[in-house]
Amino acid sequence: MVNLGTLVQYLALQGGPQQQQQQILSGDQFNMSLITETTYTLPSLPYAYDALEPHISSQIMTLHHDKHHQAYVDGLNAALKGLVAAVKANDLPAQIALQPRIRFHGGGHINHALFWANLAPAGSEETNADKVAGGLVSAIEGVWGSMEGFRKEFGAALVGIQGSGWGWLVKDGQTLKIVTTKDQDPIVGGEVPIFGVDMWEHAYYLQYLNVKAKYVENIWNVINWKTAEERFLGERDDVFEALRAALKF
Ligand SMILES: [Fe+2]
Description:
Radius of gyration: 19 Å
Structural class: mainly alpha
Catalytic activity: 2 superoxide + 2 H(+) = H2O2 + O2
Subcellular location: Mitochondrion matrix
Number of strands: 5
GO molecular function: manganese ion binding; superoxide dismutase activity
Cofactor: Mn(2+)
Bound molecules: fe (ii) ion
InterPro entries: Fe/Mn_Superoxide_Dismutase (IPR050265), Mn/Fe_SOD (IPR001189), Mn/Fe_SOD_BS (IPR019833), Mn/Fe_SOD_C (IPR019832), Mn/Fe_SOD_N (IPR019831), Mn/Fe_SOD_N_sf (IPR036324), SOD_C_sf (IPR036314)
């Protein structure tokens, strides 16, 4: 793993202070013998492909997980392989040229790994926010006045995304924020992703066609508030547990 720490740290540093980037990119900071190939694998869905019906169809879940997410994992592994070769060759231009691919495919892997875990079958205990997410619900009510007020604002942010992107509820220090990200840009700075909603067309179009607002309306039936509560109360590193589990040295 190029001695860069985790992928999350690496992606965070792409937008980080110039000094940190220079430390990472400076050849004399590396013990080249420590640089090894690493691969990520597709994490299994924590439920059946049809478990989120009728709100997200089995067909969408199958294609989304097995094809789209797999493609991000494959793209990330290929880019990281190239990065290892570029670092070993002290080819700084090649290392820089690979960064957009790592950001896109690495972000795609991070985002989808977080997304699967923050969904659950409708009607399950995990989707009952009042029962399983008392701390988070209180915090949301503190910021937006009510859960309904939060859902309204979050839904508007999702529907307002132009092109492909994601909507996230994040913990930023002691407060909560709604943020949207473009393409596969992940939440890898200081904010803690609580839950995200995939707003790429591949996430809904086969079922909802152009009626994006209906997908957004129905997503509330399958949000896993238990996972959201754990992310809200836990440490930032815990959020990326699935990502670490998908890492093979
Ligand atoms: Fe997706």
